[in-house]
Amino acid sequence: xxxxxxTRRNNIQELKTSTVDLLIIGGGITGAGVAVQAAAAGxxxxxxxxxxxxxxxxxxxxxxxxxGIRYLKTFDVEVVADTxxxxxxxxxxxxHIPKPDPMLLPIYDEPGATFNLFSVKVAxxxxxxxxxVTGTKYANYLLSKEEVLAREPQLQKENLQGAGVYLDFxxxxxxxxxxxxxxxxxxxxxxxxxxxxxxxxxxxxxQANGAKVEDLLTGEIFTIAARVIINTTGxxxxxxxxxxxxxxxxxxxxxxxGVHLVVxxxxxxxxxxxxxDTGKNDGRMVFVxxxxxxxxxxxxxxxxxxxxxxxKVEQSDVAYLLDIVNHRFPEAKLTIQDIESSWAGLRPLIxxxxxxxxxxxxxxxxxxxxxxxxxSAVKEYLDDPSAREKVEKAINExxxxxxxxxxPSQVSRGSSLDRSADGLxxxxxxxxxxxxxxxEGALQKIQEILAGDFQKRFVLIDSxxxxxxxxxxxxxxxxxxxANLAKLAEDKGxxxxxxxxxxxxxxxxxxxxxxxxxxxxGLSVRDxxxxxxxxxxEAVLTPADYLxxxxxFILFIRDEVDAMKEPVINKMQAFFGxxxxxxxxxxxxxxxxxxxxxxxxxxxxxxx
Length: 608
Known about the structure:
The protein is α+β, with helices and mostly antiparallel strands. It folds into 3 domains: about 5-60 and about 175-250 and about 415-465, FAD/NAD(P)-binding domain (3-Layer(bba) Sandwich), CATH 3.50.50; about 100-170 and about 255-410, D-Amino Acid Oxidase, Chain A, domain 2, CATH 3.30.9; about 480-605, Orthogonal Bundle (Helicase, Ruva Protein, domain 3).
């Protein structure tokens, strides 16, 4: 079974004349997670996304499946426990995507520091117990100041006390989305990108029973009939609610913007992901992460009220991040000219949800005295589990200062599932790590509605043990399995590096990838396989879809993009039958995406 633009055309024809059990609006990670579980359960499932799959928030994250160790500062133990559990679940169902990559957390003696050496060790020990890695090769450890500088000699020496090292996971966010989407399509779903919802429609009783949509490729408008509709559009959640004339629920989203910048590794060389306080006593922390032959850093966290479809990196974002990174890595002396690529994304935070829930949150600020009391109690518990009552007592007695005017960095990453009076469901908030769990909760509600209102009964799958597309490898032997898969590519004549690149990108789908062996003029053998597969099996519709979200070339292999652009465009023109006018339009759109990532306009404005 293929998943191409022909598949898309067939999906549309089917949806014009039938009623689906579930219509999902939004093709980011939340919608994709709902789709894969619904389709696997046998529900007739449709998903519409007005952009490319993952084009919004879900391809613009920090690209980690983060364990949330920082929540232990406020002893939000339940949050961290659920987060690391879910991280393990995601790694189990998509083992070719999240990869273990221990995080270095330098500790500085300065105002506003999140941890000191004592508290970080306590937090890491507790974190390891929650993550189930105590006593394994991924168990945490401390480094002295000298050991930290031997590992990262560019790091700021002043006030450095040492560092903690603990388990975290790198992620390919866009690939995680497309693998879920592909699995949902393979299980009988109807997955559509570049289809925009115009209006929620209703039956004679005023209940939501479908959506009027527009195919943005052809301009055709049609209606998809559905028994249940769920809104999974992240920062757009309130906008979609406004398309429902009978929706009475109030606005709930407070999107914030996060920016990341990419430089060549020769400019900023770190051997592993590094996570540190900004040094500005502003309550924020910043990641510096090696990837491919590049290093990227971020993120900002500022309230956003602009165009939800097109958040941009602004000069103030660049100045803020460069200031922090140059402070922590004084020898780097990075300027805007060193930035090779960038991205800006929105976080779908829920306003007014400052309380702790399973997705993370913040109940307020612990006093230093209360914090130290809990640290001491936890330390005693780690040495002697019979002292658990002391931990519970210390946590119950902490002095919490509730502040309802929290800054954007402190707004809960919590999720919510609401149903309006006309039946429209909205699943909002959360974060990538929790996408499977959020979907599981939503499916239980959808199952209940379908049974109660439509007498349609479905048995939900065990989503913890249901791999996504490409994930059918042993999650406990990932490196070994991917190496074996890479040998298939080597047998086709690829060198070891290119073979491993494809194995990591496609996982257990690599054998199918290698069936698309047509050589594309101007592309390497590796990239010919990749583009052919994307066109036939990954619903790629534009050059930007391919170079930004299916492969991450624009972000992390920027050096090769200029030579690839025309061969990719030429292949797509032949494949889709584009006119010269349409081809020029696609070329201009790709150039605009690249220029924005390159920060071309900002560099020109600053005279660089």
